[in-house]
Write a structure and sequence with these properties.
The protein has 26 helices and 15 strands. With 707 residues, the protein is α/β, with parallel strands linked by helices.
Length: 707
């Protein structure tokens, strides 16, 4: 696997630059095989002398640290850098919201990185690098400084309809290992209640919360139950219910089934399912849920997902190779999991609600619509049914027809298939929910919210005839208590869209609405596909590092974008993709121009401008990297255009750097932590400088007269 381009004179300098202040000096010294004094002195040479250790990085930003070093350190050094055992690192990579998928599904080989003194030439190169790195100032964004609620509404979540969201900085792995005040302070709960949120959902593992009979995990569940109880009680004071998001029964490593092969189900890679075709596994699932809901009082409910990227029951992924379950269907097994969980909750007398999320009950996972209807028919009547509203929605962009897979902010639902499923569930007596994105989506995930309020309002209006009044308002992204959530509250209270603009922006309402209309019109041009959603460069903005040599690695889900533009532009031809992105950018430019003229009049308008501008820069980065990846296929012919792209990228990197310094929420998302930091944007400037210099030198060599 090709190693990424090195932007520093020495490899150990990249380790130092990416991690100084994120881990303490002693830890860095141990990893690099030197001492604290040397680490401090070398950091000062790179302009990091004013940076002090911020422990929040290892507590709430460790995914950023892992991603920054995945192609730089070997596994042992990475665990050492984090201060973890390799077993702890294994757990995080396996259980933290598909992190292994985001890390390319493989740990690349990396040589040990050790400190060696710089040569005289390297010292000179380091001085040049430091000047470039700090050309926009040595100061950095105030990471993890999130909670400023000046723009929030006051009030309480008194609505009877359910509005459930994921906490803005709530962990996505071992959620209940920490005191909930560290990720849900009272001020944040108060802000949620103020914008009408009355439910919070949390990733949960039964092995973390109940006894597990198939492997000795000890009593690790007891302190987590204590933390969960405290969380439930704290949320209740603000009228907010706690929902556990369960994807069960979770698989185990195949080697862990030795001696208990009778419960081993479908095998996928190194893992095997706990087979739901056995009494032992069905009894475990019931007992684990019953015991949890009997011992922790007041949990609002469970949200299940029974078809997903995780291996759970034997048919939870496409296919299934369990001989015991071969005669069962995916919809039968999915319904059975839900019914067992629902019975355990009923028997516990908890009064909690079970919401069956039908994500994956679709052709994407090998289901027909008839299968989904049959699955609903098998669900106990007290189980609520949730559909991703826009799944399967037909769209056409640039003359290319496709449909929505997953979810979208730029294409309001519901789709015909989701509408039929919701209507069918309602006819069968089930309470219904729509899963929608209000603040952002994977189309635009690096800001707390994207101000396309009119598109969200249209989605809510479209759902009204279906009779849906209950919403799951976000995935892990989109949990900020924003103006958009306040608008959803106003919709539920019967306000008009114009009335909400007037109430929120007063004398500036018309100008803000004009700007938002431009933003919406531009955003509707986004060339949506599952590939562009997850693999395009936009997620990390201009922080993606480039190289003049083509990198043959495949881009990874919302993490690394390399040079396989053919992958992320699919199904759009290259020129259509760029054309659609250009239309998108033109619309955003118009909206941002209007906001810029009035942003000084109101803090709320300044916030909208910041987030619209940040998203513009992310989409611009997508455009530029797609173009760059194409142009460098023929570097000699396209040299002039490559120089233009490099220069434009440098200017826009500086603009994104400026925005993140203004607002430390830019670049953050709960399941990925910081996609980038001011440090990584500065490294991109160094990266672009090196590429521009190489391009100029190559051009000189080509045009030099022959003797």
């Amino acid at each position: 696997m090709k190693q990424p381009r090195l932007n520093f004179p020495a490899r150990w300098q990249a380790v130092l630059y990416r991690n100084y202040g994120f881990v303490d000096e002693d830890r860095l010294a141990q990893v690099l095989g030197t001492d604290r004094q040397t680490v401090r002195a070398e950091a000062a040479k790179l302009g990091l002398g004013n940076i002090s250790f911020h422990p929040e990085w290892l507590k709430s930003g460790y995914i950023t640290v892992i991603k920054n070093n995945w192609f730089l350190l070997d596994y042992e050094q990475l665990a050492q850098l984090l201060g973890w055992t390799q077993e702890r690192l294994d757990y995080i990579i396996k259980e933290e919201d598909f992190l292994y998928v985001k890390l390319c599904n493989v740990k690349p080989f990396c040589e040990k990185v050790k400190y060696t003194p710089l040569s005289a030439q390297e010292e000179e190169q380091t001085a040049v690098a430091a000047k470039i790195l700090n050309s926009c100032g040595e100061e950095e964004a105030e990471a993890f400084r999130f909670f400023d609620f000046r723009n929030m509404s006051d009030g309480a979540a008194a609505c009877l309809d359910s509005r459930i969201i994921h906490g803005y900085i709530t962990p996505c792995g071992d959620t209940f290992a920490a005191d909930s005040r560290s990720y849900l302070p009272d001020d944040l709960l108060r802000a949620y209640a103020g914008v009408g949120v009355n439910g919070l959902w949390f990733h949960a593992l039964l092995t973390d919360l109940s006894p597990f009979p198939f492997k000795d995990l000890g009593e690790r569940y007891l302190p987590r139950r204590k933390n969960l109880q405290e969380l439930v009680d704290r949320c209740a004071r603000f009228g907010i219910k706690v929902f556990l998001y369960l994807n069960e029964p979770r698989c185990m490593k195949t080697e862990d089934f030795e001696g208990q092969e009778e419960i081993k189900g479908a095998e996928v890679g190194a893992f095997s399912a706990l087979c739901m075709g056995t009494d032992k596994v069905r009894e475990y699932l019931y007992d684990a849920v019953f015991d949890l809901f009997s011992q922790v009082n007041g949990i609002g409910g469970v949200m299940t997902i029974t078809m997903s990227e995780n291996l759970t029951h034997c048919h939870s992924l496409k296919g299934g190779n369990c001989p015991r379950c071969k005669d069962m269907t995916a919809y039968e097994q999915s319904a059975e999991v839900n019914n067992i969980v629902a019975k355990a909750m009923r028997d516990s007398k908890s009064g909690a609600e079970l919401i069956a999320n039908l994500w994956g009950w679709s052709d994407f996972m090998g289901w027909t619509e008839e299968d989904a209807h049959k699955g609903i028919d098998l669900l106990d009547k007290d189980i609520s049914v949730l559909c991703v509203s826009e799944y399967g929605l037909p769209i056409e962009k640039g003359g290319i027809k496709s449909k929505i897979i997953d979810y979208s902010l730029s294409n309001p639902g519901p789709s015909a298939i989701s509408r039929r499923l919701l209507e069918h569930a309602k006819e069968r007596g089930h309470k219904t929910y729509a899963k929608i994105q209000v603040n952002n989506s994977w189309e635009c995930s690096a800001v707390p919210y994207f101000p396309v309020f009119d598109l969200v309002w249209k989605h809510l209006e479209n759902l009204r005839p279906v009779g849906v009044k209950n919403y799951m308002l976000s995935w892990t992204l989109g949990g900020w208590p924003s103006l958009a959530l306040d608008m959803v509250r106003s919709f539920g209270e019967g306000e008009t869209l114009g009335g909400w603009y007037e109430k929120t922006f007063r004398e500036n309402a018309d100008a803000v609405h004009e700007a938002v209309k431009f933003l919406c019109e531009g955003f509707e041009n986004y060339p949506f596909s599952i590939q562009s959603l997850y693999y395009s460069p936009k997620t990390h903005g201009y922080a993606n590092l480039w190289d003049l040599e083509r990198d043959e690695k495949e881009s990874a889900m919302v993490s690394y974008a390399f040079d396989d533009y053919e992958h992320w532009t699919e199904p759009y031809p290259y020129d259509v993709y760029l054309s659609q992105m250009k239309k998108l950018l033109n619309g955003l430019e118009k909206g941002i121009s209007v906001l810029k003229k009035i942003k000084g009049k109101d803090d709320k308008i300044s916030e909208i401008w910041r987030y619209a501008f940040a998203e513009y820069l992310h989409f611009s980065a997508d455009y530029d990297q797609t173009l760059f990846s194409y142009l460098k296929r023929d570097r000699e012919r396209n040299a002039a255009e490559i120089k233009e792209v490099l220069a434009r990228a440098a200017e826009k990197t500086k603009e994104l750097l400026m925005l993140q310094k203004l607002d430390g929420k830019i670049g953050y998302e709960a399941s990925n932590h910081y996609f980038y930091t001011t440090r990584s944007l500065k490294e991109k400037l160094l990266n672009l400088y090196g590429l521009a210099r190489e391009t100029e030198e190559a051009e000189k060599r080509r045009t030099k007269p022959k003797k």
